[in-house]
Amino acid sequence: MDFEIDTYLDRVGYTGDRAPTAATLRALQRAHIYAIPFENLDPVRGVIPSLAIGDLMAKLVKDTTRGGYCYEHNTLFTAALRALGFRVTVLAARVLVGAKPGDLRPRTHMSMLVEAPGDPHRYLADVGFGSGGALLDPMPLAPAIVEDHPRRHRLTIAPADGPLESWVLQAFLDGEWRDQYAFTVEPFYAPDFDVINWHIATNPRSPFSNRRYAARTLPDRYLLLDTRTLTETRADGTAVTRELADDAEVRQVLADAFGIVVP
């Protein structure tokens, strides 16, 4: 692989312990989320993002003016975790945000199940969901609530409709638990996500191929740009939304607030 662990750790500003422990996993996930923004500018402009490690290092690590969407973030994070000695199973999840009762969506989100040597727990990890309901900290694979301040999450077990347990990640938003995505724990591999990535980047019905998104998570606030609508959500849950005037203002806001330079 063309993965350079020292360069990656410099990019995310991580200087802590490199031992493959739950504490390292938690600190590294926060560091990655705070350092590298979420964005889908390549699919919107007709470019299919590469998931090759060398290309991800060039775009998300060595170029500090870009980010990526879930497959890019979580492929890169998987490589970092494996380089540090973690065992990682890559998962494919069904996004439930905005789904109506009875909707059956395809598995289009990448997340990870992470194991550390000597630790009996398995952890759901994710640095690429890109929404206000995304995990900030990894959480044990167990039906329990986790306080990943300023957010709050829980995992529940859905009624089985197959041979494997189906887990649902929920976030506590606006006073209620809301489904984020559902998954089972069988492994998925790079060729699976080559197909999923191509579909999401090129399908004209995909929101990521025709609608501009960018998100930036910081310790005290979360920024979301949806086309020309900019929303800033503070740690206390209060939010301010404004409409940007034109593409010139969008470019300026992306540069100033998100650290993204539009190609």
Q: Mind telling me the C-alpha Rg?
A: 18 Å
What's the total count of β strands?
Answer: 13
Low-confidence stretches: none
Mean pLDDT: 96
What is the 3D shape? globular
Counting H and I runs of at least 4 residues, what is the number of helices? Answer: 8
* Straight-line distance between termini: 26 Å
Structural class: alpha+beta
> Helicity, in percent?
25-40%
Order of helices and strands: HHEHHHEEEEEEEEHHEEEEH
Strand content: 25-35%
Major sheet attributes: 8 strands, antiparallel
Layout of SSEs?
Elements: H1 5-12, H2 22-35, E1 38-39, H3 41-44, H4 53-62, H5 70-84, E2 87-95, E3 107-115, E4 122-125, E5 139-140, E6 145-148, E7 151-158, E8 166-173, E9 176-183, H6 190-202, H7 207-210, E10 213-218, E11 221-226, E12 229-234, E13 239-243, H8 247-258
Antiparallel strand pairs: 1-10, 2-3, 2-9, 3-4, 4-5, 6-7, 7-8, 8-9, 10-11, 11-12, 12-13
Key traits:
single chain, 13 strands, eight-stranded antiparallel sheet, 263 residues
Short summary:
The protein has eight helices and 13 strands. The protein has 263 residues and is α+β, with helices and mostly antiparallel strands. It is globular.
